[in-house]
Write a structure and sequence with these properties.
Mean pLDDT: 90
Number of helices: 9
Low-confidence stretches: none
Strand order of the largest sheet: 3-2-1-4-5-6
Structural class: alpha/beta
Helix content: 40-55%
Order of helices and strands: EHHHHHEHEHEHEEH
Strand content: 5-15%
Radius of gyration: 17 Å
Distance between the termini: 10 Å
């Protein structure tokens, strides 16, 4: 029986293409500026180096770039209110699930707070945790959450849109996982967070 949810934010709680593109654009500009790379050369640079940086924080660590600087320039310069609106369907889903919900995100605390407020779910989320200098490892954060809540990993479902960074280690540690995406290329996927209820039911009533 699922007793708690851990959710990714970008690409999971919302899939607004314009907003996600803006964040990717800001990320590209940020690294170009910090590493003195021309925009025209960024794609080639990224292709050559992405295997060494499984997530953005590995790249920040490698180049000794403060996380707070990344957050402030990539996320805090964006107003999510220009892209998102209250999600009534998501509110109904969360209320019906009636479970403790944690959000674990690579975005800044300020940005995450705005996103949850705009979507109308801030009061339904127990805690939003932003990856930081002190907490950069998602699986360690997941483990800390279940220790606090006194739950076993198989009583918790982790939902994300990136198998490698959000779900792979969670699956290996016994968490239930749901991938949000377009292709059924990994175990148990849904196309949208709005399909969450039947997915959770399948865990609870196999």
């Amino acid at each position: 029986m699922i007793k708690l949810l851990i959710l990714d934010q970008e690409g999971t709680l919302y899939k607004n293409k314009r907003l996600l593109y803006k964040i990717r654009e800001n990320t590209q500009e940020f690294f170009c500026k910090k590493l003195s790379i021309d925009k025209e050369d960024y794609s080639e640079w990224y292709s050559k180096n992405k295997k060494d940086f499984p997530n953005i924080f590995e790249a920040l660590k490698r180049f000794n770039i403060p996380i707070v600087e990344y957050h402030s320039q990539v996320f805090d310069t964006v107003n999510p209110g220009n892209y998102l609106k209250k999600d009534l369907n998501l509110i109904k889903i969360f209320k019906k699930l009636n479970l403790p919900i944690y959000v674990v995100t690579s975005s800044s605390k300020n940005y995450s707070k705005k996103v949850l407020e705009i979507l109308g779910i801030s009061g339904l989320v127990k805690e939003a945790i932003s990856l930081s200098k002190e907490e950069q490892n998602k699986i360690k954060i997941y483990s800390k959450i279940i220790t606090t809540e006194k739950l076993a990993s198989n009583e918790v479902c982790v939902v994300g849109d990136n198998w490698d960074t959000d779900l792979k280690e969670a699956k290996e540690e016994g968490f239930k996982t749901i991938l949000i995406g377009e292709n059924d290329d990994k175990p148990f996927f849904i196309k949208s967070i709005h399909n969450l209820l039947p997915a959770i039911d399948q865990f609870n009533y196999p």
